Amino acid sequence: MWCTLLAICTLETDHCELSMHLGDIEILFLDGGTFGLDGGAMFGVVPKVLWEKKSPPDVNNRIRMRANSLLVRAHGKNILVETGNGAKLDAKLRAIYNIQEGDPLLDSLARASVAPDQIDLVINTHLHFDHSGGNTRVVKGRVLPTFRHARYVVQRGELEHAMNPTERDRASYFPENFSPISAEGLWDLVEGDTEILPGISVVRIPGHNADIQAVVITGGGKTLAFVADLFPTPYHLPLPWIMAYDLYPLQSLETKRQWIPRMVAGQWIVVFGHDPDIPAATLHDHNGKIHVEPVDLNR
Fold first, then answer.
1. Domains in the chain: boundaries
2. pTM (whole model) above 0.85
3. Which of 237, 215, 265 has the alpha carbon at shortest distance from 51?
4. Do β-strands 280-286 and 289-294 pair in parallel, antiparallel, or remain unpaired?
5. Domain at 17-294: CATH code
């Protein structure tokens, strides 16, 4: 059997979460909370008459999404993949994006009996606010790193771009999500595909922007890939279903064309960045069409 499941139980309650093992690497799915983005922007050139059958919009044309994260335990470290929207956005922005109240990511960590100070490493796939908002939080009126004892990992080019974005993507970057990390000297910047720890690597998946990275975990003869906005949902698996948010849609097309056959052939577990119902699945080619088989990381 290539993976096993391990119970994570809190001491204060009878609540237990189950996690998946890939060899010696333990993986737990974390719910970072729901939010909504415009369906037309999420599906780009795909007509609404097609995408609304897959992901029905609300009265404001927003589709339901989730900020998906992972807790990875490996080599004696607690590793957090993505930090979601966080809890710093003002009421106006929370309403625009229909962001779930509170701080769901920290609540999910608490259910796994992990405090923020116990996180050793944070990996951001990129620095858009819905992937890095929880990097920092407000403490007595100051914006400080949420995970004080952690090193934060991102591509060097992504941080450089985040500090000087274009008019096209400026609305996606909020300095309060990454500048305090710089001020505290907590960044571990990588350049290109890099092994972070044995069995845990980051791999560039350009298209959504130039330096977005996937997190690829290998152990026990199997592979899991957290692909962020390459496939925000399973409905983005067809090659032309590409977000209007992508800065380089033709690069997204080529990245998808390269990655999907590898994922199918290797029976990878794929973790989607934003799907609210199927956060993880394996991919299967049925007569040229990709189908998904959901995988519950927390059974």
1. 17-294
2. yes
3. 237
4. antiparallel
5. 3.60.15.10
